[in-house]
Amino acid sequence: MDLTGYPTDFLADLGFPEAARRFLVRRTRRWPRLSLNGTPLDDAAPASWQLPEEPGTSGSHILGFARDAAMEQHWEDEGYALDGTREGPFALFYSRHGGPLAARAVTGVSGVPAPVAESVESIGLMLTGFFAVTLLTPDDPATDPFSGTVLDDLRASFAS
Length: 160
Description:
By secondary structure, the chain is α+β, with helices and mostly antiparallel strands. It has five helices and eight strands. The protein has helices spanning 16-30, 45-48, 69-78, 114-120, 145-159, and strands at 6-12, 35-36, 39-40, 60-66, 90-97, 101-103, 125-127, 130-137.
């Protein structure tokens, strides 16, 4: 099977594990029978779920999301593609990095009030640890409504 899908890459702060839990909760509201990494979640699972990662490791991890068993099969057959309902499987790839990260200038600031965005635009960035995150959706979130909803849910999960 060829790799398919549209990647959207992020750097996330160390709050990513809690944001990932909130993202899972949001997605189970849309897909009550959601499967995570091929396993259907029960009703209580999202509230107590924790991001799977091994302490002290910086390896890459994946969370695969599918609506139900039919979408799991569609995923096997078609990869990250929209199905007949115009929805599709998606995944979060992530890795934790404990070392510092610095950037000379932050650009393209969004998601905050304009005065805040203006005050941080083009200034340096320093983090003591971070997560590299890729959201892989069936299509470009800028043009596909389903993929856009998934990206919006992920972004909103950082604000909650």
